[in-house]
From TrEMBL:
GO terms for cellular component: cell envelope; plasma membrane. Residues 74-209 form the Multidrug resistance protein MdtA-like barrel-sandwich hybrid domain. Residues 316-374 form the Multidrug resistance protein MdtA-like C-terminal permuted SH3 domain. One of its GO terms (biological process) is response to antibiotic. This is RND family efflux transporter, MFP subunit. Residues 1-41 form the signal peptide. The keyword Signal applies. InterPro entries: MdtA-like_b-barrel, MdtA-like_BSH, MdtA-like_C, RND_pump_MFP. Its main location: other. Belongs to the membrane fusion protein (MFP) (TC 8.A.1) family.
Length: 397
């Protein structure tokens, strides 16, 4: 008779003394206590994770920088003459061509000044012609001895004074003509114009009243900053190509991405770097130029530019979600042949084709956990569902 059967009479007596219900509860307690190992003997299911081999292929690592687009040319439109604004000849936000009429200042005062200057030129020209004929007559009389030399000198002085007066009148006419021309404000370059900042009827002050702005939009420049170590790397590559960073920047191909992920990446070339590093930040500003025929890229827009930062080499790529953190280092979870989890510290590189480059820590032959990192820890056995990672991630931009 086992231990449980030996206890049954006691339970009967106990039930008889305290009631059937109480006795049943006591029996359940005894049976549970008698076989505690029955529930614990069942082994729990192994955690299920997704595992894969890293992607191994030839890559060129990119350096990524954040920068801002700026217009190749930008002009603030101001008037050169004062006056009341008479007309506006453009539509806000339109594309204008060089030489298009934008604003007209009230021309009547300047037209009157021009007419007066023109009349002064006519007077000075007639006086010059008269003094020239007087000088010719005096020279003829002086040769025959019928005119004193002093009178001849006076006639010569009067002729020279008339010529100078004519030159002054012509200069005043040119100035009046320029002022009259400046009452018509035209586009100095082709580009997209901003809204009008002054309405007709307002007084415009020369060189101070801002009327609008124009920015060139094709091509467009992208500026970003690089540190000193990166500069040496790029400068070395530029010298191998027979150029310098400051002059052409070796025309290195670059790619920029904007905040809107639905927009495709834009391809351009490095074409300029500043001639010194900034004393405060220790960085150098670099420029890349991009075609912008469709006008998608706008001045002031932020972007992320990728610049080739290495020669082609064998690279190991893993998804970002497969990388964990252990205090101040990055780790990946590796599975052995029995499904036991261990960790390997890694040194990560840039993002490439939707994957993270692993510069140190992996050989590419390991089996790593790519999904389910929250369910694993070192020394735990797991059930791995193997998948094959594509050469380029589906989420790659």
């Amino acid at each position: 008779m086992d231990e449980t059967a030996s206890r049954l009479p006691v339970i009967r007596n106990f039930g008889g003394r305290f009631g059937l219900r109480t006795g049943a509860l006591a029996l359940f307690w005894v049976l549970t206590a008698a076989a505690p190992h029955a529930a614990w003997a069942q082994q729990p299911d192994l955690p299920v994770v997704t595992a894969a081999k890293p992607v191994v292929r030839d890559i060129v690592e990119d350096d990524e920088f954040v920068g801002r687009f700026e217009a190749v040319d930008e002009v603030a439109i101001r008037s050169r003459v004062s006056g009341y604004l008479a007309e506006v000849h453009f539509r806000d936000g339109a594309v204008v061509n060089k030489g298009d009429l934008l604003f007209t200042i009230d021309q009547r005062p300047y037209q009157a000044t021009f007419d007066a200057a023109k009349s002064q030129v006519d007077v000075a020209r007639s006086l010059t012609e008269f003094s020239a004929s007087q000088l010719e007559r005096a020279e003829a009389l002086s040769k025959s001895g019928n005119l004193a030399v002093s009178i001849l000198d006076d006639r010569r002085r009067e002729s020279l004074a008339a010529q100078a007066q004519l030159q002054g009148a012509e200069a005043s006419l040119r100035n009046a003509s320029l002022n009259l021309e400046f009452t018509e404000i035209r586009a100095p370059l082709s580009g997209r114009i901003d809204r009008r900042l002054v309405s007709p009827g307002n007084l415009v002050q020369p060189d101070s009243t801002l009327l609008t702005t124009i920015v060139a939009w094709d091509p467009i420049d992208f500026y970003f900053d690089i540190d000193e170590r990166t500069y040496f790397s790029y400068a070395r590559d530029a010298r191998e190509r027979g150029g310098t960073m400051q002059e052409g920047a070796s025309n290195l191909d670059v790619v920029v991405r904007v905040a809107d992920r639905s927009e495709a990446q834009f391809k351009g070339k490095l074409d300029f770097a500043e001639n010194r590093l900034d004393d405060a930040s220790g960085t150098m500003r670099v420029r890349a130029r991009f075609d912008n025929k469709d006008g998608v890229l706008q001045p002031g827009m932020f972007g992320r530019v990728n610049v080739p930062g290495s020669l082609p080499h064998r690279g190991i790529l893993v998804p970002d979600q497969a990388i964990g953190a252990d205090q101040d280092r990055r780790i990946v979870f590796v599975l052995d042949d029995t499904g036991t989890v261990s960790t390997k510290p890694v040194r990560t590189g840039p993002n490439l084709d939707g994957y993270r480059v692993i510069r140190e820590g992996l050989t590419g032959d390991e089996t790593i956990v790519v999904n389910g990192l929250m369910r694993v820890r070192p020394g735990v056995k797991v059930k791995a569902e193997m998948v094959t990672l594509p050469p380029k991630a589906e989420t790659a931009e």
